[in-house]
Every structure is written in structure tokens, then in C-alpha cells.
Design a protein that fits this description.
alpha/beta; 2-enoyl-CoA Hydratase, Chain A, domain 1; 2 domains; four-stranded mixed β-sheet; binds coenzyme A
Length: 278
């Protein structure tokens, strides 16, 4: 297939609480075209508040996770149309990555293959990331003559630190999944053959947790990174009090089932949320 319709650029299935969303332009190594960016936003919209979705996993069809931005359809064709088109395409791409960063459900990047340049935006957008050891990561922008934009420079320095970020961005040298895990770009690297099983295992653990607490937790971890200690302390008080508004029974059940019922130990696993009043 050479020219996919917009809706065909993203595929997904929802199975047992997990939305498996896939970049779906394998013949173009899942590079992000304006069509794909628009469709991804629609899919994220559709899945975000569905009751049958507890966790979202983002992976790619074929040999790539995503080969970054589409050099032809995203860069060249928009540049030819003028600044308005370029800015519009940027808004579409950055828009769904931002959406992912603050998504209502926990998100996991499952990096099954090539991950380049603009791909670092959605990589950072996901809360957790698991890579195939065989995957390849690179900031290839320097190899074709631009800086790592679309947040990629920010992502690499945030996740890996100054020296590694400089080397990675300036040299245009790739790293494999194992190195990406050592550097902190992903949580873990496992053989490609076991990647989906490992991600499913993690997703199932998340499905057992209190969803209000998960959303509050993921937002807190992202927000406090840029706060002073005092501001973070204050934000966390307010954020927990706001979470209590959405779920006032969860933490009480959590305490009751441990202290009174003695049915679980919080140090060793989650309380039984089926017993709480929703
Ligand atoms: N933009 C536009 N087209 C892309 C693309 C991208 N980022 N990445 C891959 N493609 C296209 C190729 O042009 C090719 O199209 P064609 O079949 O019409 O010739 C097709 O996808 C397959 O790519 P190919 O290079 O043959 O696959 P490969 O498996 O041999 O190599 C990569 C895979 C990822 C190493 C290589 O495609 C590549 O270097 N892509 C660009 C990566 C990049 O610099 N991204 C950063 C953008 S910010």
C-alpha cells in the first residue's frame, strides 16, 4: 500500500482494558505525516474516556516505531505552501504529543524498532517506555541538516543529561534499546520476541491500581520536575485534595483493607478496588 487514507494511518484494538494503538504506515517506517498526526489525535480523543480502556500502549506496525517526521509530507510539502502551513502542521503534531503527556489514562510506549527525531516527542509523551533490545534510537536531524526540533532536544537533555544529549544530538550516531535503557530514554529493554508480553504484564499491574490516583500521580511526577521543593510540596497537597473530590472512597478502602480487614499489604500490592463505592 503506497497511499493510505487518513483513517488508515493509525490502527488500534482494545483488549481486556488495554488500548493497543499503532502507528500504521509500515511501508514508510511509520514516519509522521500531517494525516497521521490528525488521525492520532482523533484516536486519542476516542479512547481517552472510554470505560473499557484503562491503559494505552503506543507501538508501531512493522519494523519501525516511528522514523520521525515525514520529510516529504510534513517538511517539504508544507514549506512549499508557506509559513502558515508549516505552523499548522506543527500544531497538529505537537498537539497530540501534548495530549499524550497529560492523557487521562496511563500510557506506555512500546518501542518495537526504529525511533528517530520527532519520535522522541511521543516517546516522552508516554508515561512509561519499554524497548526491544534490537530497536534503534537516533537524533538523525544533524545528518540531514537541521536541529532536533519538535521537543526532541528538550527530551534528550531531560531524560539523559547534558553530555549524552550533546553527543547524541551532535554526532547523529544511533543507540540500541539496551543503551537507551542505560541512558534512561526507556524504562527497560527486552528481546523483541518478549516485548509485548512484558508490556502487557506492566499494563495489567496498572489496571489493578486506583485510576484517580494514577492520573494524579502521573501528573504530579511531570509537574514537580520543574518546581522548587516548597512549590512541589504545596502542589502535591492541593493535587491530592482535588483527587479526593473525584474519588473520596479509594484511599479509605486502601487503609481499611490493610488496617481493619487485613486482606492485603500496601507494601506488597494494591487493595481490591472492586470493593470500593464508586
Ligand atoms: N520521512 C519520509 N519518508 C520516510 C521517512 C521519513 N522520516 N522514513 C522512511 N521513509 C520512507 C522512505 O523514503 C521509503 O520510501 P519509498 O519506499 O517510497 O522509497 C520508505 O519509507 C522505506 O524507507 P527505507 O529507507 O527504504 O527503509 P529502511 O528500513 O531501509 O531504513 C530508516 C529505515 C528508518 C533507517 C530510514 O528510512 C531513515 O533513515 N529514515 C529517516 C529517519 C529520519 O531521519 N527521521 C528524522 C526525521 S525528523
Amino acid at each position: 500500500m503506497t497511499d493510505r487514507s487518513e483513517t488508515e494511518t493509525v490502527a488500534f484494538d482494545v483488549i481486556d482494558g488495554i488500548a493497543w494503538v499503532r502507528f500504521n504506515r509500515p511501508e514508510k517506517r511509520n514516519c509522521m505525516s500531517p494525516k497521521l498526526n490528525r488521525q492520532m489525535m482523533r484516536v486519542l480523543d476516542e479512547l481517552e474516556y472510554r470505560d473499557d480502556v484503562g491503559v494505552l500502549v503506543l507501538s508501531g506496525e512493522g519494523t519501525a516505531w516511528s522514523a520521525g517526521m515525514d520529510l516529504k509530507e510534513y517538511f517539504r510539502e508544507n514549506e512549499a505552501k508557506g509559513l502558515g502551513a508549516t505552523r499548522g502542521a506543527q500544531r497538529e503534531a505537537y498537539g497530540w504529543w501534548r495530549r499524550l503527556r497529560w492523557y487521562h489514562k496511563p500510557t506506555i510506549a512500546m518501542i518495537n524498532g526504529w525511533c528517530f527525531g520527532g519520535g522522541y516527542g511521543p516517546l516522552f509523551g508516554c508515561d512509561l517506555a519499554f524497548a526491544a533490545e534490537e530497536a534503534t534510537f537516533g537524533l538523525s536531524e544533524i545528518n540531514w541538516g537541521i536541529l532536533p526540533g519538535g521537543g526532541a532536544s528538550k527530551v534528550i537533555v531531560e531524560l539523559t543529561g547534558f553530555r549524552r544529549a550533546m553527543y547524541h544530538a551532535m554526532m547523529g550516531e544511533n543507540i540500541d534499546g539496551k543503551t537507551a535503557a542505560e541512558w534512561g530514554l526507556v524504562n527497560e529493554a527486552v528481546p523483541l520476541a518478549t516485548l509485548r508480553d512484558r508490556v502487557e504484564q506492566v499494563a495489567k499491574v496498572l489496571l489493578e491500581k486506583n485510576p484517580v490516583a494514577l492520573k494524579a500521580t502521573k501528573d504530579a511526577i511531570r509537574r514537580v520536575r520543574e518546581m522548587t521543593y516548597d512549590n512541589a510540596e504545596d502542589y502535591l497537597i492541593r493535587a491530592q485534595e482535588a483527587a479526593n473530590f473525584f474519588d473520596n472512597d479509594g484511599r479509605k478502602q486502601g487503609i481499611k483493607q490493610f488496617i481493619d480487614d487485613k486482606t492485603y499489604k500496601p507494601g506488597l500490592g494494591a487493595y481490591d478496588k472492586s470493593k470500593q463505592n464508586v
